[in-house]
Amino acid sequence: MKEPGHNVDTTIIQNIVEDIVRNRLPDVTIESVNVRRIEVSDDEITLHIVVVFDNDGKTLDPRKTSGMVRHVRPKLYEAGESDFPLFSFVRKSEAKGMASEVA
Known about the structure:
The chain is of the alpha+beta class. It has one domain: ANL, C-terminal domain (GMP Synthetase, Chain A, domain 3). It has helices at 10-24, 62-66, 68-78, 92-95, 99-102; strands at residues 29-41, 44-54, 84-91. A three-stranded mixed sheet has the order 1-2-3. Strand 1 (29-41) and strand 2 form a beta hairpin. Helix 1 (10-24) runs antiparallel to helix 3 (68-78). The longest helix has 15 residues, at 10-24. The radius of gyration is 14 Å and the shape is globular. The chain starts with 9 loop residues before the first helix and ends with a helix.
């Protein structure tokens, strides 16, 4: 295991998160998972994770989405990432205008 920090490539983080999200939400079409580091303060960085999904207009199960951090954080830590993940789940139909924000 790497020493946890902020130096894990976001592509690796994205792959870890995407795998967990797809496994936790098997009945949902995951269109994309986007990861950005955001400096919140001088000594705090968070991982902003935007999951774009298509669920035929149905609501996502809040028990699964609200608990996603609990499943993702240990895997990120194993990979050497200590930044805290913050999730946003956005419907594909609502994400079209966000393309520049999540890129």
